[in-house]
Amino acid sequence: MAKIGAESLEPSRAFHAGEPIAPIDNGKGSPWIAGQLRQAILDGMYKFGEKLPAERQLAEVYGASRTTVRLALDQLETEKLLARRVGSGTFVSYRAAAETASIAEITSPLELIEVRLAIEPYMTRLAVLNATSRDLEKLDEACRYAEGAGSDPAKFTDWDTAFHVRIAEAAHNPLMLWLYQQVSEIRTHTQWSAMRDKILTNERITEYNHQHRALYAAIRSRDVEGAMAMVTSHLHYARRQLMGAEGA
């Protein structure tokens, strides 16, 4: 699929580097549109951090309604390929693993926690001040799915990561979100995966879920100091578990 540029003006034509794209079959629905955009992102036609064309423009190019386009973008956001920023637009959040592999190789889980301790308290402060009702819904959803993961460390880790990324999104600061996405991607490295299986007992998963719920409640109630204290305590708790696992 060719990239749709910001200069696309007609529903039947779009241009990238001066080359027209053929009209799209307007009988296709949101799964097909999501597939086209997904492939363009994975192929590198849309780079990490790049802004996608507006929903209106995508609807014109694909010959679809804005609702259909929005459903396609919702799917890609769920897959963590895209991130929406209120008032700014939709941006690519996918980053190829090779782009962070080198720094991940030399960053230990404890070093990662130290960086999170430097970033997340202020990030959480911004989330308390700036979170929209939609942001709060997404945080609650992440809590529910993490709680529903039961004793599965991999599923819990996915939603634990999503919960913290959604706090970054709720901060509504593009640079903060970008920085935190780099942190989150390092958590997928094999060093963390190996440590995860040592740390995430049933009891600890339960405790992490309690801490997430308390943090969510503080953000929802706009308790700046309480939320910052909770996320700091949450990360210190994680740090103690990592130190114990490394010494085992």
TrEMBL record:
SMART domains cross-referenced by the UniProt entry: FCD, HTH_GNTR
PROSITE patterns: HTH_GNTR
Keyword entries, A-Z: DNA-binding, Transcription, Transcription regulation
The organism's place on the tree of life at top rank: Bacteria
CDD domains assigned to the protein according to its UniProt record, in alphabetical order: WHTH_GntR
InterPro entries xref list: GntR_C, TF_FadR/GntR_C, Tscrpt_reg_HTH_GntR, WH-like_DNA-bd_sf, WH_DNA-bd_sf
The HTH gntR-type domain, residue ranges: 27-95
Gene3D superfamilies xrefs: GntR ligand-binding domain-like, Winged helix-like DNA-binding domain superfamily/Winged helix DNA-binding domain
PANTHER family the record matches: TRANSCRIPTIONAL REGULATOR, GNTR FAMILY, UXU OPERON TRANSCRIPTIONAL REGULATOR
This protein's name: FadR/GntR family transcriptional regulator
Species per Swiss-Prot/TrEMBL record: Dongia soli
Native organism taxonomy: Bacteria, Pseudomonadati, Pseudomonadota, Alphaproteobacteria, Rhodospirillales
